[in-house]
Every structure is written in C-alpha cells, then in structure tokens.
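Below is a concrete protein record.
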Amino acid sequence: MRLTVIGTGYLGATHAACMAEIGHEVLGVDVDPDKVAALRAGRVPFHEPGLPELIAKHTASGRLRFTTSYEEAGAFGEVHFVCVGTPQLKGSEGADLTYVDAAFAAIAEHAAPDALLVGKSTVPVGTAGRLAAAYDVEVAWNPEFLREGFAIEDTLRPDRLVFGVGSRRAETILRTVYQPVLAAGTPAVTADFPTAELVKTAANAFLATKISFINAMAEVCEAAGGDVTKLSEALGYDDRIGRRFLRSGIGFGGGCLPKDIRAFAHRADELGVSLAFLREVDAINMRRRDRVVELARELCGGDVLGARITVLGAAFKPDSDDIRDSPALNVAARLGLDGADVTVYDPAAMDNARKAFPLLGYAVSAEEALRGADLVLHLTEWPQFRSIDPERARSLVRRPRIVDGRGGLDADRWTAAGWRFSALGRPAPNGEG
C-alpha cells in the first residue's frame, strides 16, 4: 500500500521506516524543511539504535521518501498516519492538541475521499470522535506503544496492536497495513474510539504508578532501615505483580509518562471523574529528585557550594538522547544553582544537554568527568556506567563518594574499593552513613 506519515519526529520517523520495512511505499511529511532534508540524506536528528540504518536502506531503495508538501501527500497516500506531538499546555496539565488539529486539517484538505486518516499520537479521550465529526474523510485511531531505545522492535514486533475504528472498512484497511505484523502472531484489539485512546493513557498511568509505588516503598525503607532492592526482588516473584518497572531510583522522566499522566488526570477532571492518585504518583516521582539533592548536600557536609560534583547521565533513560524532563539534568541544574561545580557526561545526550543547560560543565568521557570529583551521582542507567571499575574511578576522584540514583551499581564492589556508597531506599553498606 501507499502510506503517508505526518510528522517525522521520534514516532513518525520510526513508523515511516518500519512501514517501509514491511513492504509499503511510504512518504514522510513534515513542515520543517531542514528535518526533511536531513532525513532524505539518511540523517536522523535523534538517537535511536538501528533507525539511521533502516532509513538509509529504504531511502536508497526508493520505498521511503520525505516531503514538506501536504498536496503531494494527499495525492500519494491511501492511508495517512498522523504522528505529531502532544506536549503539555503551558500553564496547564492538559495536552496541547495544536499540532494534531493542524495535521488533520492539512491532510484532510488534500486527501482522497476514500482515504483513511489514522491518529497515532497520544491524545485525551474524545479527540478521535471530535476529529471524525469534523471531516468528510474517515478517521481511525491506532495508538503507539514505543519504548525509546527499542522503537524498531516495538513497531515490527509489538506486544499488541489496537485499532480504534468506526467501521468494518477501517478495520480491514488497518489489518491490511499491518498484515505482516499480524501474521507473525501479534494480537490485535479492535475497539471504539474512546477505548483505543484510553489504552495508551491507561497503560502509561499504570506504568507510572508502578514506578512511583516502589519509589514510595523506598521512602518507607529509608525511614525504617529496610532495603528496597530486596523488597522489590521479593515482590517480583509474585506473578500478579511481576518484576518489570519495579526497580526504585530517581524516578521517570522523558516526553511521555510525566505529561501523559498529568493530561489524563486533567481530562478525567473534565469528565467529572477523579484520578487524584495520579497526582500523588507525580508527586512521589518528583520527591525522588529532591532526595538525591538532599543526599548530595549531606555527603558534602550540608552545603554543595564549591563542591565538584560529577553527574553520570543526562538522558532520561539509557539508549536515548532525549533529555525532556530528565531527572538527571534536573538534579544537576539544581545543584549548579546551589553553587556546586557540576560536570555531566552522557554517551548520547551531550549536545542536547548543552543546548538546554549551557551553564553546566560537560566532559568528553566518564573518566574526564570523574577526575577531581568530590561526589559522583549515577543518574542514568547506561551499561557503560555499570561497567566502570571502582578501583580505577577512585584513583581519579578527589573524594570517593557516590550516590547510586538508579539502583544499578554493585554496592559491595564499590564499598570494597574504598567508596562511601549511598543509594535510594537502601541501607549503607557496612553501616556507613
């Protein structure tokens, strides 16, 4: 089939490349001519493993092209996927639907009468129905469930597909689009518009709640002298609970979970339903950042003024260069405002971090970042940081003190190498403070 993908950011570029990979002819559409030029040249303006190679493969074959023209897109596509962002509204918890509304209006103006417009953006429940009523072209909703760092895998081999449709025809078209994925055994759920929209927001709310639950347990462990890593291990053996998303740490960030749970609670309020627990989920998440700042002050004698602090991590998660609502950079910036000399290192997110936080210091390697440090904060769980040799690291720093904000380091190994080791929700090794 001939598909267009409106919006070539993280979601759109990935979806376009993967649809070409399963055999479709794809035209990516974006209003940013610089982004389109970069993608035509095979350059991807963000970090996602395997995506540059996939885009280069299919632009070279001619199966994947990019344009700024909605007129060209309307003439080309049988199915149009809208993959634009829904950021948080300034001054509100709600979602900003400016880009979604503009994309639907632009493609609907040029689409063929029998085309199908498919939303993939995460939107407040009720959006699909409103858009379907606004245009003569048929609308469907097909929410995305991508994890940064695993986006290609999650598109080609998802754990489920959700089709929000208003007709059997729309369902048939979507099943045709995804036929190779469905043939591989991926389950599909066909639903009405509101249910399809709610699947994504409910999934994000559940995951955020699970993360904040174990972080709340970390707070209890800190107060009671317990060990949250052992607690989560024991809970994870319960099949009803499971181990995934049950590791405590500095909390979640990124461009999805924080803004999506706020928008979900806001929309529920509009519908007369209270999801007040999601605001506490958000509050618990933010308190974990506060706790890392408190630990840094404690380990620096009550005041970080003049202390040289190394922050390992800038992206909100490993295998990404996304710094949106990054817990690591939030902590780094706050310590910098308190007078600390902060140096940041991240394997992928350095350029983005420099642009957003130009007053922080940056190193070209972990070793350079560690040199002369009074305190080290491990705040993004890159595999490279877990493999740092504590003995070698101790020879580089001025004072061997580390806070593991992600629960991924071997406390005994670091302590044996002479480090004062602190972690969220865990007692200090050997009874150290």
Q: What stands out?
A: DSSP finds 19 helices and 14 strands in the chain.
